[in-house]
Amino acid sequence: MITFEQVTKRYADGTVAVSDLSLEAPTGRITVFVGPSGCGKTTSLRMINRMIDASSGRILIDDRDVRGVDPAELRRGIGYVIQQAGLFPHRRVLDNIATVPYLLGWDKRRARDRAAELMELVGLDAGLASRYPFQLSGGQQQRVGVARALAADPPILLMDEPFSAVDPVVRASLQDELLRLQEELHKTIVFVTHDIDEAIKLGDSIAVLRVGGRLAQLASPAELLARPADDFVAGFLGRDRGIRSLSFVPARSVRLRPVTTVSLSADVDEARRTARDAGEDWLLAVGDDGTPRGWVSPLDLPRAGTLAETPLLAFGSYDRDADSLRAALDAALLSPTGHAVALDGDGAIAGVATQRALSEALAEAAALTAPPPRPVSPGLRPDASGAHRDGEHAGGVREAPPGSMGDGREASRG
Amino acid sequence: MDEPLVRWDWIARNAGTIGGLLGDHMVMSLVPVVVALLVAVPLGLLCSRWRWLYQPTVGVTNVVYSLPSLAVFSLLIPITGLAEPGTVIVPLTFYSLAVLLPSVVDGLAAVPESVRQSATAMGFGPLRRLVQVELPIAVPVVLAGTRVAAVSSISLVSIGSLIGRGGLGYLFIDGWQRTFPTPIVVGIVLTVLLAVLADGVIIFAQRVLTPWSRARSAA
């Protein structure tokens, strides 16, 4: 655990970068420092590994004051990743990754074996080992940067806007990768960003800082979206807070209804009969493998032919176990029928979420996420440490609301 | 004038002398570059560490650089002696230094801040960071300066012939005094060859020492 105790950083010219900061970054969790430029987030980060020393207050790592440790020694036990990766241009990828093991005096072979292991861990092709950094793409460089930070298996990882210099697609994949790694490694991570969406996606808890290095709020992402402490935090969170907070409500709570399916290879008469027998306005056409292909209305069917020759209407689907309510709602909006197709983890159809079922789930979510306003004291909330992740989409699902309705009737006929 | 541009028989007869002049030329032009490099690295480090040192130091080397070489040679004669190699080597060392000092300082300044910071953050102490990270990254810029210093040093040595020690420059004076073009042509060709060779050796060294920098200059 990293503890800030009333930490202040004042520069010689009188500028106060960080002001009376007290917070805890729990062991094995991702704590994000987020805020506009000039809020002291990077300064705060660098005080942890003593790249900058605090003017007053203490920073403790597992109850040990960092000031009592030799800086170089302290830093070898703390991984550090920065925006431009900061790779050594004159060293090959493998030797870049092995930097800290070399500093710790490991023999060359062991250090390189470890580096090769890490390349695999962060998803780098082994063929890149003997390249120089300039021969890599920005995303690959950033992966090398992460591997290098992890090389000596430090319990703590400091990340200073590590993904902000790469394009959005690469950034998203690096973020997913970090979450995947963290699930495996359980490092104590302090992550600095100016991007609130990144903070919400990655953070177990988020410290929002305002200019001058004052802590505005420390909370879990769901809590932050639901109950921003003040106008500054609300403004910083931006638009669509309500919709975005649905990312933290599991889609399991949505009641499912059975859906009548029809095979693509069925002819139109059979489809019409199926619809009539079931009394359905819509049929879900499925392929031979049982996966959904599109909606079809018996009224729109041509006189003859099979469904495979008939144009189908678009459908949206979500994973009912892994996805959030936001993903389910999105799936419903993508379909002209207004129904979202719920899939099992293995891609089989579990049922459909109707508009009605979705609005019930929304009402439930609103009751959970937006209770009457009450003062929120800065300080770690207990629910931040109880959070867990089991999905990558739309920020992952972290908390199951009490009384979730994951047992909706589901069936599939066809 | 039916004197040919090159009389091969003269070259053949004087091959020994020409070889001696060539050797002399190499020593007097390259020793200053090596000495200047050995001085420029620590001096450049000091100037990078304490930036305020840089301008005055470069100011001094630039003033020396601006002095006409012949004048400096003449001034040095009472100290280092007439027709002695030292009389040529000392000023050329200062000239090379004027080129190399900024190269070392620029080379160190070319180390990206992100690299410096990540080195510190990973636990490099200041000395280790300098030796293992900053100096190696400065090498391409320093070697680029060394190329300039070497070539200009090779061409400047000839002027030393006016005070009796100019390596291949002696051939120019000889040819001019006797209205005899062969030594002049030989002097020019050998000086150019020497310069090209020295440049090539440094380029080769750069390829071998800094394979990682090729794309950087292309980028």
UniProtKB/TrEMBL annotation, chain A:
Highest taxon of source: Bacteria
Domain ABC transporter: 2-237
Presence of the UniProt keyword ATP-binding in the record: yes
Molecular function as annotated in GO: ABC-type quaternary ammonium compound transporting activity; ATP binding; ATP hydrolysis activity
EC numbers: 7.6.2.9
Name under which the protein is recorded: ABC-type quaternary amine transporter
Pfam families according to UniProt: ABC_tran
Region (Disordered): 368-414
Keyword Transport appears in the UniProt entry: yes
Root EC class: translocase
